[in-house]
Amino acid sequence: MLSASVDGTTSKADNNLTTDPDIPKGPTESHVLSRVEQDEKGLSQRAGHTAEITNIGWGESPDAIDEPLVAGLSNEDLWMLIRRFDKQVYRVKAVPDAPVQRLDLT
């Protein structure tokens, strides 16, 4: 059991629990990968390079779009990832009871 000393300072056991782990400095690997210019680009990665509006087919079924929207990822896999993300976001937003003191979770 943890206890504080009489003068209000923390005990040695408290210090062992509250020390921060080593946090690496600089960008993470995913941040570095997102900045690297890709040799191969999908439809969504090439869209927006002109002043024209580009219809890449987000409203279409995955089978109706011949070329991948994201390079290296099939359109079916992309739709699956988007559906999984949407379900996770819905679970976060779907709170059966109102939070204490009407806190806004958005």
From TrEMBL:
<feature type="compositionally biased region" description="Polar residues">
    <location>
        <begin position="1"/>
        <end position="19"/>
    </location>
</feature>
<feature type="compositionally biased region" description="Basic and acidic residues">
    <location>
        <begin position="32"/>
        <end position="43"/>
    </location>
</feature>
<feature type="region of interest" description="Disordered">
    <location>
        <begin position="1"/>
        <end position="61"/>
    </location>
</feature>
<protein>
    <submittedName>
        <fullName>Uncharacterized protein</fullName>
    </submittedName>
</protein>
<dbReference type="Pfam" id="PF11696">
    <property type="entry name" value="DUF3292"/>
</dbReference>
<dbReference type="InterPro" id="IPR021709">
    <property type="entry name" value="DUF3292"/>
</dbReference>
